[in-house]
Design goal:
Radius of gyration: 13 Å
Strand content: 35-45%
Helix content: 10-25%
Mean pLDDT: 90
Shape: elongated
Number of strands: 4
């Protein structure tokens, strides 16, 4: 799966979204899932543990990109759950 941004010029008055998720996955697939998440623009995994838990950070210029990122993570093979913990909108 691939996540693409809208290639229009960003509006300086537009909102900026930051969200964090707790994601649980099969422990044996953790490294591969982290690689796939971090290969996606705007998504990073600042923390994970060997039991298959990780924190995912999403930074996006619009809510649509953020929700598509969450959907992409949910659909990765081996992901058991994705829970939104924090969402902030800066204007």
């Amino acid at each position: 799966m691939r996540l693409t941004r809208n290639h229009t010029t960003p509006d300086p008055a537009a909102a900026y979204h930051v969200a964090s998720l707790v994601v649980h996955c099969r422990p044996e697939l953790l490294a591969d899932i982290v690689r796939q998440i971090e290969a996606t623009d705007g998504l990073s995994v600042p923390q994970s543990d060997p039991l298959g838990k990780m924190v995912v950070l999403i930074e996006a210029a619009d809510e649509g990109y953020m929700t598509r990122g969450i959907s992409l993570i949910e659909q990765l093979p081996g992901v058991a759950s994705t829970n939104l913990i924090f969402h902030q909108i800066d204007r």
